[in-house]
Amino acid sequence: MRIAIIGAGAAGIMAAITAKRLNKNLQIDLFDANKSIGKKILASGNGRCNISNSNITSKNYIGENPDFINYALKEFDFKAFEKFCKSIGLLLDIKESGKVYPLSNEAKSVTNLLELALQELDVRDFLETFINDIEKEGEKFIIRTDEKEFKDYDKVLISNGLGAAPQLNASEIGLDFASKFGHSYNPTYPSLVGLKTENTYNGKLQGVKKECNVSLFINGNLEQEIFGDVLFTSYGVSGFAILDISQLAVLNLTSYQDVKIGINFFPKINRNDLADQIQALFKTVPNQKAVDILTGIISNKIAPVLLDICKIDLNTKASEINAKQIKAISYQLNQWKLKVIDSQGFGHAEASGGGVRTAEVDNKTYESKLVKGLYFAGEVLDIVGNRGGFNLQFAWASGYLVGKSFGKIK
């Protein structure tokens, strides 16, 4: 039996290794547009390779039907992943947070060991090979590049992801292949990405970073709250809390909803107590400018912008600030609202949302319900995980089920 795998990322690699271990007689050809396998694996976790998470449920994913992945997460849970890693010589560093890294702390060690496993199993790789067309004639598949065609495949796996990180040759051509075979897909969008805001304060807050509580409002309704780093940028906001909240934010932007975020700079202090502390500060040094005194509790970049929002002149002395103005200052610090107008785009996104509709794919084999012998795995499907190794774990798990199906193990 001849099998073609389009995309040598986590899902494609896992499918190839699993299938060949179960059935040595399979001929598997692995195609990828890059010079080497696993480019997105290398980029995960800021280059440290956050390859999984030890605490995973379907609640860590969004999509049209996140429960679609329950079977995959059960069949290939974290223990199964850890066992697989040991089988290729890879030891893991499991953090208290649940994030999982290679014990070597080097992403390259992961792809090196995966590459050795593929070579040992005689999986043929065709790198720097961009597949632009797939056809099915009778029971066989044909795949094509601009210069060449590869014939007589019994099965094809589409696992070449979506548009996140185009600098790594990412594209949405997998959706073109899916559409050609009658599949539908949900609109794609950048996920785990910085957010562009309507007001950027002319870049005056650029570089300010603080741990904050971030609230997401969709059409005025509170939808999500996350605590973590917020980084102000020239285009809006970034940081871990923003990346996390971006998933629902950008998803709602794609359907033209009103999206706002609220930033609480002091989540451990309620608004009234914060107002009292500011008032006490002002009384301590009444003859100093309020803008200077505020730098005792917030960044010196935030203070002038804060007073401007509250319509207080920058030359105003602390003794001249009244109770109403102090309440306005504390309110702003407690709920700094920003209207989200866009994301930074796929070029800066860690993952892509949307994709092939899971209703059209078997959740136990990941074979198309429409075309026999056609399979999908990983990011090309309408499943996207939270930050922290969840997307790679879904890629490993879905690839495993495809490989199991290829190996004809029931």
Automatic annotation (TrEMBL):
Its cofactor is FAD. It comes from the Bacteria. Residues 189-350 form the RsdA/BaiN/AoA(So)-like insert domain. Keywords: FAD, Flavoprotein. SUPFAM superfamilies: FAD/NAD(P)-binding domain, HI0933 insert domain-like. InterPro entries: BaiN-like, BaiN-like_dom_sf, FAD/NAD-bd_sf, RsdA/BaiN/AoA(So)-like_dom, RsdA/BaiN/AoA(So)_Rossmann. Signal peptide: none annotated. Residues 2-404 form the RsdA/BaiN/AoA(So)-like Rossmann fold-like domain. The keyword Transcription regulation does not apply. PANTHER family: OS12G0638800 PROTEIN. This is Flavoprotein.
